[in-house]
DNA sequence: CACTAAACGAGACGGTACGTCTCGTCTTGTC
DNA sequence: GACAAGACGAGACGTACCGTCTCGTTTAGTG
């Protein structure tokens, strides 16, 4: 049979509580117990939806991801890449940054979860850069043979900053990084 | 006054136990309680030395760091950088990799700790690359204006890999990264 | 709301473990930790029921108290009092004696707890004597004006013995005490 | 060899610290560790003098005991007994009361210690009453056959009060108790 | 309309780890 | 040798989460 349907209000309450806790107290202060308490929901209701903290974060982040802008396409590699990076970095300075840090913390504690994050969340961001590079490659602009390395050059420093110095992710840094990556992408004989 | 000196055997037992636990069971399986139990030492003896897990890892890693080789200096930028990266990545495939992951996990849970890690451990690695770049710059080879960005290009992807795909850190990846970074460093007009 | 009801088996296991520990190892050997371990119950389960050791003992003793015989009423003051004292002292020679000692130890470390013990456990015993004295007083036998002092004469020596010489609490001692108290109760002009 | 003699200042500091702690924080707050810290003395210096908390208390109490008045001897049983009890009870309302409570707590946790307390400290108090009763017995006033029971009638209620209601030990209570005990002592045919 | 099945809040449960405290012993260097 | 200092193993303290498990109650469909 069907049984009682899940209450969407509960869904929202959980996500909201998770978000609140993580922004107010960081990953440390975000516990399944705390989420339930804060949202006025039973622990079971949380565990019914998510197998663990990681999945909660993943879901909360997905909400942000859904509202994100599409990949820029101005015909200019530098402009496209810069726009994307500026937007991405700007987000990392806000709530999504805290969520990504939490995500990283979870991933470090469960390799299987790291895999999921990689394929579900990170892949999308990488795709965006891959598209930009692909278009530039079609225009003969990009000569570097391996997109993946270039993409690592873009996002590696971002995660590095999230780990040890989140304040670094400014527009200026986005620009510097963009230039360096473009140089690496376009100056291979 | 002096008081009874700390027993070096206890120091070693703690470090060894921490190392064992982290390599066998990962960051998750490493607890202050477990370290004490495994090393046959009282919890107090552990807490007397380290205020938390993070500091233990930091200290264990320091032992590895101390035994690390000096910065290569062959007069050839590519060879120097490649050697350094290959060595560093090779280490990340082993025990130090697990330790670094643990370190990252801790750093994510305590920003103050992230700062310490940054200045005490990471700085040394960055210095090595800075020296290599500096020498090449003296030879007129490096034209990119900002060492820091270049260094981020080197280590960003490494941490990124440690977070989501540690298996990526092969010699081949070290080579690809080296080439990309050198391109970025040397092709700025 | 209701929530999952407490498991009575856990209640019993805790009480039994506490009882075992206190009889086998005395108050010293009875710890919240030990109770949990011995009963195969989590520490939380214990702390959920009792805020501290004292309350555990109090509860264990209550079980004994509930099964105690009613106040004797033969119409003869000496017989009534003697019976009560013999029974009470006999109990002190057994498990309840150890429990009472533990109770005293706890009471000495927390005045607030002493108050509780006084009103919840000791009061019942005093009431029994008060009833016996009251009936004798109705028969014109007891002339001493203050029951409370007489009751202190009865139980004071008992606690004194529990503190320093538990072996003293024999039937003979009960008889000697009974006689002395009756003399004090009945020979006031 | 003789070695360095013990520093009397250390002796005093320990006793003073123990006294302070016990009066300020009760038995709970009196720890060997605390005594050492408070007195500015090493733990070893404390343990060198006393095998445990109990002995410290015993020693501190002994100082008080030494300064106590001699057994009253006015030729009047009631007056002698009343004086003794009033003085004794008055002391229990003060610092010696707290010390006695601590003593009781210790005795409950180590039967062997209870024995020592009994023979060293309590015996003196009992002797005093025994002397008073003896003199009255010589005058043909006391007819009760057993001094020990009478002495229990005197001190039992005192310890009982120390356990559960220290406030009870007033002059009025001393008087009531004196009268009851004298009745018991003098009205046996 | 009754029945069924799942969701829901509440909260108990066995675990595990946390960080702190005190115990009684020991090991330094200094006096 | 006493002494201050403080390390050491042991073990209890009380708390916090984990993920699972009852409870009794509500809320849809389905028959």
From TrEMBL, chains A, B, C, D:
<protein>
    <submittedName>
        <fullName>TetR/AcrR family transcriptional regulator</fullName>
    </submittedName>
</protein>
<dbReference type="Pfam" id="PF16859">
    <property type="entry name" value="TetR_C_11"/>
</dbReference>
<keyword id="KW-0804">Transcription</keyword>
<dbReference type="InterPro" id="IPR036271">
    <property type="entry name" value="Tet_transcr_reg_TetR-rel_C_sf"/>
</dbReference>
<keyword id="KW-0805">Transcription regulation</keyword>
<feature type="domain" description="HTH tetR-type">
    <location>
        <begin position="8"/>
        <end position="68"/>
    </location>
</feature>
<dbReference type="InterPro" id="IPR009057">
    <property type="entry name" value="Homeodomain-like_sf"/>
</dbReference>
<keyword id="KW-0238">DNA-binding</keyword>
<dbReference type="InterPro" id="IPR011075">
    <property type="entry name" value="TetR_C"/>
</dbReference>
<dbReference type="Pfam" id="PF00440">
    <property type="entry name" value="TetR_N"/>
</dbReference>
<feature type="DNA-binding region" description="H-T-H motif">
    <location>
        <begin position="31"/>
        <end position="50"/>
    </location>
</feature>
<dbReference type="InterPro" id="IPR001647">
    <property type="entry name" value="HTH_TetR"/>
</dbReference>
<dbReference type="InterPro" id="IPR050109">
    <property type="entry name" value="HTH-type_TetR-like_transc_reg"/>
</dbReference>
């Amino acid at each position: 049979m069907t049984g009682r349907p899940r209450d969407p209000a509960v869904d929202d309450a959980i996500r909201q509580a998770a978000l609140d806790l993580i922004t107010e107290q960081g990953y440390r202060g975000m516990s399944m117990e705390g989420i339930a308490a804060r949202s006025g929901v039973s622990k079971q209701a949380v565990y019914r939806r998510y197998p663990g903290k990681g999945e909660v974060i993943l879901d909360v982040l997905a909400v942000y991801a859904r509202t994100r802008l599409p990949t820029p396409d101005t015909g200019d590699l530098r402009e496209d890449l810069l726009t994307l990076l500026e937007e991405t970095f700007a987000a990392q300075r806000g709530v999504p940054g805290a969520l990504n840090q939490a995500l990283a913390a979870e991933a470090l504690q469960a390799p299987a979860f790291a895999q999921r994050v990689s394929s579900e969340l990170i892949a999308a961001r990488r795709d965006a850069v891959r598209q930009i590079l692909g278009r530039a490659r079609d225009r003969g602009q990009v000569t570097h043979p391996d997109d993946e390395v270039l993409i690592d050059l873009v996002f590696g420093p971002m995660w590095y900053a999230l780990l040890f110095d989140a304040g670094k992710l400014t527009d200026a840094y986005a620009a510097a990084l963009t230039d360096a990556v473009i140089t690496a992408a376009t100056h291979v004989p």
